[in-house]
């Protein structure tokens, strides 16, 4: 009985320490893609979030959470997504996204006359 109780507590502790970022990022996939390399609808600048600095991601998410950041047509969507994120979740998500590989630059072949 004591063994089961201790194992249960250990499991609970392990689960509590698990990185929340992948689960949180699952909500981002629809617009940003599975690897963060998609350009979200309405985003200014034509850049993806993959590989952005943690500081930039934290500032943007806190700005969206406060309703102050505007990066194009996605302001209301990002506000809804960020409004309930804690500072710890924002930190974890920023670390996760900043470690995603940047999107490769696409070279557009222009036909020669």
Automatic annotation (TrEMBL):
Annotated Cytochrome c domain residues: 16-101
InterPro entries: Cyt_c-like_dom (IPR009056), Cyt_c-like_dom_sf (IPR036909)
Transport in keyword set: no
Keywords noted in UniProt: Heme, Iron, Metal-binding, Signal
A Pfam family per the record: Cytochrom_C
Gene3D superfamilies in alphabetical order: Cytochrome c-like domain
First and last residue of the signal peptide: 1-18
PROSITE patterns per record: CYTC
Domain of life the protein comes from: Bacteria
Gene Ontology molecular function: electron transfer activity; heme binding; metal ion binding
Protein name: Cytochrome c553
Organism lineage: Bacteria, Pseudomonadati, Campylobacterota, Epsilonproteobacteria, Campylobacterales
């Amino acid at each position: 009985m004591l063994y089961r109780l201790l194992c249960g507590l250990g499991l609970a502790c392990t689960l509590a320490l698990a990185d929340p970022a992948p689960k949180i990022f699952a909500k981002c996939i629809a617009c940003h893609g599975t690897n963060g390399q998609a350009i979200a609808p309405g985003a200014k600048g034509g850049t993806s979030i993959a590989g952005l600095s943690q500081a930039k991601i934290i500032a943007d998410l806190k700005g969206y959470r406060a309703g102050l950041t505007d990066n194009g047509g996605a302001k209301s969507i990002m506000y809804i997504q960020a409004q309930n994120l804690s500072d710890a979740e924002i930190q974890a998500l920023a670390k996760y996204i900043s470690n995603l590989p940047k999107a490769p630059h696409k070279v557009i072949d222009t036909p020669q006359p």
